[in-house]
Amino acid sequence: MTELELKAFLCIIKNGSLSKAAEQLFVTQPALSRRIKNLENELGYALFIRGKGKRKIELTQEGEAFISVAHKYLELFKEAKQIKSKTHKKVFNLASIGSVSTYLLTNLFQRFINENNHIKLCFRYCHFIEAYQYVADKQVEVALVSDDMYYKNIETVPLFKNPMVLVSKKEYATPIHPRMLDVSYEIRTPWTPEFNAWHDYWFKSTADYKVSIDQMSLLEYFLSLDQTWAIVPISMAKQLKDVHIYPIEEGPHDRIIYYIKRVDYHHEIIDLFLKELKEELKQIEEIELY
Questions:
Q1: What is the 3 state secondary structure string of the chain?
Q2: CA 53 to CA 67: how far, in whole Å?
Q3: What domains does the chain contain, in order, with CATH numbers?
């Protein structure tokens, strides 16, 4: 199966005619027909319905199903050709949970990319369980997570911690205690197992909260609703617009963020990234580095 054969197949479909496709591809009709025949022979089935006097292009069921496959194969050909142009750059694959990437990494990304032109940064957002899988499967070199769990051949290292605070557009009398809060207005976020245990103690596991979210991009919208409140890390709270921030008496433990990597893998780019990340975090006074 060649790139020319795949392009011939898709071009015929696009133009609805063998003659128009041949003209667009600058080949003769017999040459184009041979490409299609070679492709069909390799696949083991016909892609087009053929018959005497049939002028209109009509696909077989297999031909219809093969359209998406052909597009995927062409993308793979494109990626394969790009490998040579990418080899002069070192690729650094990074993953992170959304609350860290959205509120703590944006400035770092800009500086890291600008100052390290020899490095190609590939970032992906994920939940913490996915992060462990990505690192184990060698899809990423480092991931930032909020949960410490055992995973074979994965090293989990504490990076920093920061207090959890209450945020709301509503003004509260201080000090704030969990007993003062009406859980029916809560924007519930399951930060960590430790936070969930604290939450269940004060509000019960069956608490009738306003809404539960796991996408931080939605937090500011829900905080705009009347009387809503949420409990978030203070580093995030400081970046939310037009909210009041309150410490909590008998509040949850500080939230810890970890970086994870494979035990058997070490690379200078990892050290460089972690060094620059720690320098960035030092600028946030509420964060305590390990």
A1: CCHHHHHHHHHHHHHCCHHHHHHHHCCCHHHHHHHHHHHHHHHCCCCECCCCCCCCCCECHHHHHHHHHHHHHHHHHHHHHHHHHHCCCEEEEEEECHHHHHHHCHHHHHHHHHHCCCEEEEEEECCHHHHHHHHHCCCCCEEEECCCCCCCCEEEEEEEEECEEEEECCCCCCCECHHHCCHHHEEECCCCHHHHHHHHHHHCCCCCCCEECCCHHHHHHHHCCCCCEEEEEHHHHCCCCCCEEECECCCCCCEEEEEEEECCCCCHHHHHHHHHHHHHHCCCCCCEEC
A2: 25
A3: 3-85 (1.10.10.10), 90-161+256-289 (3.40.190.10), 164-246 (3.40.190.10)
pLDDT of residue 18: 87
Task: Specify the pLDDT at position 84.
Answer: 66
| Tokens 């970032």 found at | 123
pLDDT band at 16 (very low <50, low <70, confident <90, very high): confident
**Which range in 90-94, 125-129, 242-246 is most confidently predicted, on average pLDDT?**
242-246
Q: pLDDT digits over 83-125, tens only? A: 765 556 788 999 999 889 888 888 888 888 888 888 889 999 8
pLDDT classification of 216: cutoffs 50, 70, 90: confident
**CA distance to 98, 195, 281, per residue, from 191 (Å):** 11, 6, 20
pTM over 0.85: no
Averaged pLDDT of the chain: 90
Q: Which of 207, 171, 169 is nearest to 190 (CA)?
A: 207
Distance in angstroms (rounded) separating the CA atoms of residues 129 and 276: 25
